[in-house]
Amino acid sequence: MYQDDTLRVFLEADPTVTVGRSVSNDHPVSLDTTQLSLLLKGVEVERPPGLLKSLVFGPTREAVFSKDEIMALAPQLKEALAQASPKERVSFALMRASSAQGSELTSGAVWVRGRGFHFLLNRYRSPMDKKWAGIPGPYDSAFARGKLTPPEVRPDFTVLFSLGSYVIKQEPGLATEMFASPETELVIDYQRFFADARKAPEKVLVAAPAEDRRDAMGSSVTAVAPAGEGDMATVRALTDRVNRLESQVTDLLDIVKRLTSSLEESRRALAEKDKEIRTLQSAPGASK
């Protein structure tokens, strides 16, 4: 479908389509660039932080795509979704430069089924073995050799949407139930999301990139929340963070108390053992 040095978008058979039954994707589907930009802008990942980071910052949550990546990806997803069949989904691979590893790969897939916009993330900023000179061709390439297929290792991230009220809850998959794997698929009620954006755009706090503000939905959508609403959201977020930190500090203090008690018991046991050894050494006939 599309390929350049940093982006590849292509159609592939959707393994989630049930064979022999009526469950299939609602493709082809017409979504414009602005709509897709809004959806991509709201997709986030959360990674479990280390202990020290957890105390200070809480879980690490960040946007999956940069503004430039959204500007590059959204138009290509639009074209691909308009050509996809009911048994296909649209897959993508994005490469970005990384000072530490040379290059990082983000890959996934999207499809539409009913009122749900499905977003699946296979890899997120996965380091590549060497400096990336551009995404290869589909034949004698890393793609053809399967190097860009989903990793077999357990993902270290969870996929979220910035406005959680639009997320359609799904039954956990087999992998999640058996291995407690993080959720890497997100289903967004895109029809309700766009309807709300038309009626009250100020409530949709996800924005398309500044370069693509043409509103195909009938009204402009901005990234700025009303001042009072934004301030209250900040206060709530800070309050939650403080409460979480207080709970974590309490847990750590409890751990310190238990460790201190254990060390004291060990010290007493060593003192008793030392006393016993001295008694044995001072007994008549003991070797000097």
Describe this structure in words.
The chain is of the alpha+beta class. It folds into two domains: 223 residues, no CATH class; 64 residues. It contains six helices and nine strands. The strands form two sheets. A six-stranded antiparallel β-sheet has the order 1-2-5-6-7-9. Helix 2 packs antiparallel against helix 6. The longest helix is centred in the last third of the chain and has 56 residues. It is elongated. The chain starts with a strand and ends in a 6-residue tail after the last helix. About 14% of the residues have low confidence.
Topology summary:
Blueprint lengths: L1 E2 L3 E7 L19 H10 E5 L3 H7 L2 E4 L3 H17 L4 E11 L3 E12 L2 E12 L30 E4 L12 H6 L5 E5 H10 L27 H56 L6
Antiparallel strand pairs: 1-2, 2-5, 3-4, 3-8, 5-6, 6-7, 7-9
Helix pairs in contact: 1-3, 2-6
Briefly characterize the structure.
The chain has helices spanning 33-42, 51-57, 67-83, 174-179, 190-199, 227-282, and strands at residues 2-3, 7-13, 43-47, 60-63, 88-98, 102-113, 116-127, 158-161, 185-189. With 288 residues, the chain is α+β, with helices and mostly antiparallel strands. The chain folds into two domains: 2-224, no CATH class; 225-288.
